[in-house]
Design a protein that fits this description.
single chain; Rossmann fold; six-stranded parallel sheet; binds nicotinamide-adenine-dinucleotide
Length: 461
């Protein structure tokens, strides 16, 4: 075993152990309130940041028995009022706040805080909530700075409170099935050698805001925004966000690390502001990672484009010598492929691990093995020959597990189960920190225009 591999295994072991330990220690302080009207143990929740994602999380959490919203916080009345009104329609009575500090010091009965503010505020809001004795579910990317991300893990550790990060694919039953039963568990892909992934989005316009509803210059300055344009389009600017790799790539590159069970050893990348005149962050980028796994090197590419919706949307593609897995939050973009040279999958169909597709691409599955169809003499004076083999088609299969809930619901359920019952978190701070380090390295590599390596210990907060 090489030094690098041995140190990466040690780091992995450390992360796994500390994550489990963190969840166990932190789960202790929750004192059950008893069943609410739904029959579930009640958890009192506040939301900080009620924009697009805050509302999506509210909608998903409303479907979870026992969750009671006690407060909402947003500096923009437009979004604060919207969230308050939605919650009132569902029978909750949240107190509205502009300033999170007032929320944390006033509404004492809150157990957990959901944070969906722009990335540059995650560390400030998370650390304050943890120090106020609350468990925290914070959106990805953990932070747009390494220091910010580290401060969140340290605060969770010191306060012994739970910190879950919003990499929700880790709680998606289809992703869990793919990892436990297909890639890692039964090794149906054989030796994974490569990964590709992408997220492509069409050109997007300035978000704007309703006439007369802007925040004053003084209010924007108080909360760290230059003007309404930057406040609304914070993703385009370096002081508020980590760029498209952090915005979109974070979801999928986190899954590379999670699926392989190791963090990468190096990263090279290229990107630029090639299209927009209004963006500070690159509008497209390509990254290449090298992973050193127990079975050998895995090379992984990731491509993010913000100027076209072509290319099939978003997915991660794990490729091995016996099969390949194309997986996405979009079930229609998910497919499993078996190489003709791989052992038959009858056993796995019988066990419900894979399913022959009933219709669409590749159905019925072609399971014909490679066949020798002739012999060819090699060019030159020697009498050497090679076998000519038919290139058998890949057979396509389905994953017989679907998510029949809102995409963020299982991850929130996991968080609330951790709060109420001590269930281990699916994405604790330590794991999310390793992903943040991986993703922020791409930005460094784009600027450096060369391959950067990860030092042992980089992934530990
Ligand atoms: N997990 C996912 O699939 C997913 C999807 C989209 C966004 N996100 C993440 O969610 C977060 C929010 O993204 P969004 O698309 O909802 O952005 P958004 O701009 O729509 O919402 C952000 C909200 O935060 C509020 N806000 C800003 N500063 C604040 C402060 N200091 N205190 C309180 N409120 C403040 C804004 O007024 C706004 O309502 C980001 O971190 C983003 O990366 C995650």
């Amino acid at each position: 075993m090489s030094d690098t591999l041995s140190s990466s295994l040690t780091r992995r072991d450390f992360l796994s152990t500390s994550a489990k330990l963190g969840a166990f220690i932190a789960a202790a302080p929750y004192i059950a309130r008893g069943a609410d009207a739904t029959g579930a143990d009640q958890v009192n929740v506040a939301v900080i940041g009620c924009g697009e994602q805050g509302r999506i999380l509210i909608n998903a959490a409303l479907k979870i028995p026992g969750v009671r919203f006690k407060a909402v916080c947003d500096i923009w009345p437009v979004n604060r009022n919207y969230a308050e009104n939605i919650l009132k329609k569902f029978g909750h009575d949240p107190k509205p706040f502009e300033d999170y500090r007032e929320l944390l010091s006033t509404v004492k009965e809150i157990d957990a805080v959901i944070i969906a503010t722009p990335d540059f505020k995650h560390a400030e809001h998370t650390v304050a909530a943890l120090k106020a004795g609350k468990h925290v579910y914070c959106e990805k990317l953990m932070s747009n700075t390494i220091e910010g991300a580290r401060s969140m893990v340290v605060a969770a550790r010191e306060t012994k409170k739970l910190l879950q990060l919003g990499h929700q694919r880790r709680s998606n039953p289809r992703y869990i099935h793919a990892k436990d039963k297909i890639v890692t568990g039964n090794r149906l892909l054989g030796r994974v050698t490569n990964i590709t992934g992408e997220w492509h989005r069409a050109v997007s316009a300035d978000l704007g805001f309703p006439a007369g509803k802007g925040l004053s210059e003084a209010k924007l300055a108080e909360y760290g925004y230059a003007n309404m344009h930057e406040f609304r389009n914070w993703r385009w600017f370096k002081r508020y966000a980590g760029g498209p790799m952090s915005d979109l790539g974070a979801h999928q590159i986190d899954i590379y690390n999670w699926m392989l069970g190791v963090n990468p050893r190096s990263c090279m990348a290229s990107g630029g502001v090639d299209y927009y005149k209004t963006h500070e962050w690159y509008d497209n980028a390509i990254a290449i990672f090298e992973y050193e796994t127990k079975e050998g090197i895995v090379r992984a590419t990731y491509n993010v484009l913000t100027t076209t919706s072509a290319g099939g949307g978003y997915h991660e593609y794990f490729m091995g010598d016996e099969g390949a897995l194309k997986i996405s939050e979009n079930p229609k973009a998910t497919k499993l492929y078996r190489e003709a040279r791989a052992p038959e999958w009858d056993e796995w169909t019988a066990k419900g691990v894979v399913a022959a597709p009933l219709s669409g691409e590749g159905a019925p599955p072609a399971v014909k093995p490679w066949e020798k169809v002739g012999v060819k003499k090699l060019a030159g004076p020697s009498k050497a020959t090679v076998d000519v083999r038919e290139t058998a088609a890949l057979s396509a299969w389905d994953i017989p597990v679907t998510l029949d809930k809102a995409i963020h619901q299982p991850h929130l359920e996991n968080f609330f189960d951790a709060v109420r019952k001590g269930t281990p978190l699916n994405c604790p701070g330590e794991a999310a920190f390793a992903s943040a380090i991986t993703i922020l390295k791409i930005n460094e590599a784009v600027a450096a225009q060369k391959t950067l390596t990860f030092a042992p210990g980089d992934f530990i907060a």
